[in-house]
Model the fold of this input.
Amino acid sequence: MDQVETLRDFLMSRRARLRPEEVGLPVHGVRKVRGLRREEVAGLAAMSVEHYTRLERGRASCVSDGVLDAVADALRLSAGERRYLRTLARPSDAEDTGLPQERWRGLQSVLDSMALTPAYVVGAGGAILAWNRLATAVFLDFGRLSPEERTIGRLVFTDPRVRRLYVDWEGKARETVGLLRSEVGKRPRDAALAQEIAELREHSPEFRRLWSEHVVQEDRHATLQLLCPRAGGPLRLSVSVLNLADYPDLLIPVYTAEPDSDSERALHRLARTLVPAGA
Done:
């Protein structure tokens, strides 16, 4: 994935969506450019056109945080878009070293202790790395999938079971594209991630559409609705995303139901069916 192209395309898409009158600029004559011109963004950000042009062409290594903030203000970027711009301008060269085996065992024990709460671990590129028993009952039996299949992107856009699971599949799809955009910003030279995105663009019209819109990761929705056959009906769950301080690339989505709700009772019933024999 070309980092220069990604930064250029993102900035171009954001200035293309703004009209001059929206940012207080006069409109004179016929405009050949959709949205704002480069010189208009530069003026709004109080920087030279040459400086902004270098940024849009991917030469961001010497750009200060203040300049990035000024450009973000000029383009009226959301909080998620601001984070994404900084990620593109400051890509990390660090390799994902992974979690030591003893830490994995401890993390799996934590997941297993959440007997009434579906939870799993998401790593670099959206890979699902670990999970508890209730997560496999509510979502999918992740253990039956190969590591190549077991990524958020491939599951959401290529597995029909996941499409049926989410009541608001479009919302989940947008969230997934935002996650993958963020991962590309962090890992511009990740060949496996680039290959996955190329495959999704080729085989999924929905992914291709959302990717072309430069959807970025915003704050996650607090609740979601699932049509879970094993739970006997719909589930309304809240999601909280936990982070490990020492391993910021790992995310732990944890799903809970409103106390004393039908969804909580359904989770409890489902959890009882998963107790191993003799336990």
Observations:
- The radius of gyration is 22 Å.
- The CA atoms of residues 19 and 35 lie 5 Å apart.
- The first strand starts at residue 120 and ends at 122.
- The mean pLDDT is 87.
